[in-house]
Amino acid sequence: MTTCVSHDPAILNLPLYDNGHRALAERLEDWCGSRMSDWERDSDRDPAERCRALMAELGDAGWLAHLDGGGEASDMRSVCVRRQTLAYHEDLSDLTYSIQELAAIAVARYGTAEQRGRYLPGMSDGSVVAAVALSEEGAGSDLGAVALRAEPSHDGYVLNGVKTWIALGDIADMCVVLARTGDGPGPLGLSAFLVDMHATGVTRGAIEAIAPRSWAELTFTDCHVGTGALLGERGQGFVVALEMLERFRMTVAAAAVGFGRRAYRLALDRARGREAFGGRLADLQLVKSSLTSMDVRLSAAALLTARAALALDTGGEYAKDSAVAKLYATESAGQVVDAAVQVFGAAGVVSGTAIERLYRQVRALRIYEGSSELLAMTIAESL
User: Fold this and answer.
1) Is 52 domain-assigned?
2) HSE-up of 149 (CA within 13 Å, CB side)?
3) How far apart are CA 143 and CA 240, in angstroms?
4) Is residue 369 flagged as an active site residue?
5) Higher per-residue pLDDT: 122 or 1
6) I want to staple 321 with a disulfide (CB 3.0 to 4.6 A). Which of 94, 243, 308, 344 is the partner?
7) Is residue 3 part of a domain?
8) What whole-number percentage of the chain has pLDDT above 70?
9) Which of 72, 114, 369, 373 is catalytic?
10) Residue where a domain stops, chosen among 180, 213, 235
């Protein structure tokens, strides 16, 4: 039986997972544990520098090898196991891993043999950093409103426009870019491109978030890409983006469980060790009730996540389950972290503490890869 602190052993040992997933969780947790002191020492470094270094670490250790068909399994339950484990231990390691995985899904599923050969080997060893640029100031959840244009030229396309809130955008070597090629209205007029981020016409500006992030605004000014940069068919961009998001939402749920489990463990240790009213904080009924609620929410979120990943891995319908898992897990993780801060009291809002960092880190999960409101509408339409 696994003893991973980043996972609930009772859930990881269910038939939803196999021995390969359990062994993966054990190995990755051991690796994260060996890196924690270095990660904590580097916590004040520039987040972009940290993410570049973390990508190299993940590549050197083999945690990205599956992106090009090597190393560990690449099924979605394995991806969820990785994200939950990394998120529990280090926020930026999860961010770095997840964006590389997201971009690789697009290249692997829609790329030509030449595109896969050009990008996946470097992505799998961490030498090529990838990003995904979907969002714009006027097009977040509504991808059909994307305005960045890709005008056909005699030997490719010319990109003009701005993408914003792009994770790893300030350090990326390659980026999956959603642009308007004008083949139809709204979603029908979009295409996806693989853009060299060192090309002429690409500029980047770092964006500061409430939690340290490698995050950027990308401006494309007469940026020329060849015909070989088109990912999938022209006019298929919305399909590419939607499938990436539907597949990846369940992994955001897994990361949310990782964040939530870390907060829960911190709160439990605090309650057991804190003296209050002649006894321990953990002996107070309201504190017991709060800790119980955290445990129940995290168990439900982990099970919903596993259900969605299993459905995808076994060829079933997964889009609704992925949305349900992401909606419930991210909302619940926010509630768990907030309740954990309350257990800590004033100590929970001291800048730089683990619980205070979690409070800032967990908030974005309810927005990206589909906001909670969008997912609620999506689920309602499927009923």
Assistant:
1) yes
2) 8
3) 11
4) yes
5) 122
6) 308
7) no
8) 98
9) 369
10) 235
